Amino acid sequence: MAADLGELLVPFMPTIRVPKTGDRVYKSECAFSFDSPESEGGLYVCMNTFLGFGREHVERHYRKTGQSVYMHLKRHVKEKTTGAAGGAIPRRRNGKVFLDLELNRDFNGEDYEYEDEAKLVIFPDHFEIPLPNIEELPALVTIACDAVLNAPSAYKKQEPESWDEEIQVSRHARSLRQLDNGVRIPPSGWKCQKCEMRENLWLNLTDGSVLCGKWFFDGSGGNGHALEHYRETSYPLAVKLDTITPDGADVYSFEEEEAVLDPHMSEHLSHFGIDMLQMQRRTENGHHTDNNPRPRVSEWEVIQESGMKLKAVFGSGYTGIKNLGNSCYLSTVLQVLFSIPDFQRMYVGNLQRIFDYSPLDPTQDFATQMAKLGHGLLSGQYSKPPMKSELIEQVMKEEHKHQQRGISPRMLKALVSRGHPEFSSNRQQDAHEFFLHLINLVERNSAGSENPSDSFRFLVEERVQCCQSRRVRYAQRVDYCIQLPAPIEAATNREELLAYEAKRKEAEENTRAPPEPVRARIPFTACLQAFTEPENVPDFWSSALQAKSAGVKTSRFASFPEYLVVQIKKFTFGVDWVPKKLDLAIDVPDFLDLSRLRATGLQAGEEELPDLMPPIVLPEDTRGMTIWLRAPEIDEGAVMQLAEMGFPLEACRKAVYYTGNMGPEMAFNWIIAHMEEPDFAEPLTLPSMMDPLPSTSDSPMGATPLDNLPPEESIAILTSMGFPRNHSIRALKATNNNLERALDWIFTHPEEEESDGLSDMADTEPNDNSFSNMNSHSDSTLSPDRETSSPRVKDGPGRYELFAIISHMGASTMSGHYVCHIKKEGRWVIYNDHKVCLSERPPKDLGYIYFYRRLSSS
């Protein structure tokens, strides 16, 4: 028999590989579906590429590659027999096969035991060889099989930075000496005893001193007085005050110089009058809320509709998404996108074509992974109602109602977050930033094909007026989302807010418990009004006056998108540079008419500003010579503040420079908008040399165009927006390969054969608050025989109906939890990770991002 098996495998030996360092072994999930070893058909792992395939997709891989040998993995799940002492120990014949994988096991997995089975399968005859079979298999095959079975999870290899080191118990915890000095710590109103700081405060567990920290591992900073106190007293342990919950707290050992665990935390805190059981619980996956729990508790209850008997729903379009640990920001955005027909049609409607033409490694293909997730959400295959027998069994056992398992977005998350400093981590993120990031990827991967993000794209007309000469300049930019300010001064309960603030300050000064919080209630019309009001243009240079002057800017819709995304600007920066959320409610309407905000363009009687740029003055004695421009002035203080937040130093310098030294907050916004650019962390480069007598240069800055072609990636991005290749190259050369400025240049320098429709547009300074201008596309309705510089938009009436809400709970975008509500089939549905239920009371006034669909003109 051994000889027979050896002979059988001889033709396939060259295709069987042993996994090497760096090879990813996908043995927990199919590359095309969410099948796993727990699925009915198990999972097939290719012994050459180490990709995993479900039973429906393994034949496709065999036909495409000719690879015949696969390892079939199957996990048999059995319910533990009751009455066994301590419960049965799970049997794992191949114990290491799946131990490090996150499978589709039930949430009460402790009630089940698993038996794992592995075998080699040879295609196309499906000849099976059970494993282990060491004596009968050739040595190479045995080594390869053992390596696959014992290989770590592919996801651990992709995301090494997300696996934190295990925190150890401090050696001082058991024998910590605490002074009996009568110190009692109030529940709020804390401040540093040396510098009055109220952020990043640490309680020394020996003498009860409250002092500020200096470290940035927790996202905040200070003046280092806690460390100074340790150097003076040698008291080793301190706990961060706003992290104390019934589950524990963040503890730091000065002597051990690392974060530690304190098993006796409750006892140590009670010495200073702190009862851990009364502290607010942590938010999702270990993140914390602020030390004033009441407004956050209410917010959590309202948004998640806690206390209501919500009815679970199943089937197509009602599939939940597992939380991988602070991945709810991703889940909510994907749920909303795949409720839109354009995304359904692009990825699910073209599923077979995408799968058939996928590359050899489909795990690294954006379209394949989007199609996979879209099919998982819309097929209903992973959202089936419980069988009647299961319901009866649950009632007999008095178990909770049945909840679907949901699908895991791990493969897609690993792909779309690759190389991104924030999304590749396990930290909570801003859903709005991820939405823009995902649209960016859709744009880049839709060149030459249907682009579903067209439905979000619109043009904004910006009108800048010189206050002294009264002349105007019009320009257009591409955007995908409008950001509405939340003017607190327009709150309908302003008097109540002022009274609360006075009471809060009084309680803080007297170290008393704060009063019951008051949530600001702001009319939606006030947010729209704030959006449309003129705003001052900082450091405005008037081409009419040839000097700096006062300028104002107004924004209007040059086109209306098919789907309008509205973000409420609820977040601001605290003193620790952590985004903090304003506690407010806005009466967002179900129906919205923005027709009055339609842009009008240059009006009769208006005079345009000359299309001139600020002059560059050269010294007299340098005429006729090549001149090196003086190094730009950069606020190094702002650069260091950004660098301390973890951004690359050169990127921080560029951010401060391109925002005109307007401060760290403006520079931070620039970083968020440009961090996906290939040269994000490259050194700041300006036109370094200038011809003293430039010829007919197309550059608005007078810079000499580069002799070499711009990067092909930059050209591809502009051409994918619908701009002609030659025009894109000229724009990039004229702007030193800066994509954002190149787009502005294209608008202000239309080709001669183009219509006059864009000739009135003039260059403006890049708008740091707008979404990346690189992400636009040509219009499918444009005539194919006419090239144009206009990005593709689906313009129409400005009347909309609300159909989806993404809501955030927690104190900042760096913590908390997201859920979304989507209106389907005339009813609102809440998507809370893997749980999908009919909504009884959607929290329309507490949303963070609102999605509207255009109403038909009929």
Task: Summarize this structure briefly.
With 858 residues, the chain is an alpha+beta fold.
Explained architecture:
Among the domains are: 5-80 and 95-158, Zinc/RING finger domain, C3HC4 (zinc finger) (Herpes Virus-1, 2-Layer Sandwich); 201-280, Zinc/RING finger domain, C3HC4 (zinc finger) (Herpes Virus-1, 2-Layer Sandwich), CATH 3.30.40; 327-385 and 401-455, no CATH class; 458-603 and 793-854, Alpha-Beta Complex (Cathepsin B, Chain A), CATH 3.90.70.10; 636-674, Helicase, Ruva Protein, domain 3, CATH 1.10.8. Helix content is 24%, strand content 17%. The strands form 8 sheets. Strands 13, 19, 23, 26, 27, 28, 29 and 30 form an 8-stranded mixed β-sheet that branches. It has a 5-stranded antiparallel β-sheet with strand order 2-1-3-4-5, with no helix packed on it. It has a 5-stranded antiparallel β-sheet with strand order 7-6-8-9-10, covered by helices on one side. The protein is globular and about 95 Å long. Mean pLDDT is 79; it is low at 83-100, 157-165, 216-220, 280-297, 395-401, 621-630, 687-707 and 752-789. Residues 752-766 have a biased composition (Acidic residues). Zn(2+) binds at residues 192, 195, 212, 225. Residues 633-674, 709-749 form the UBA domain.
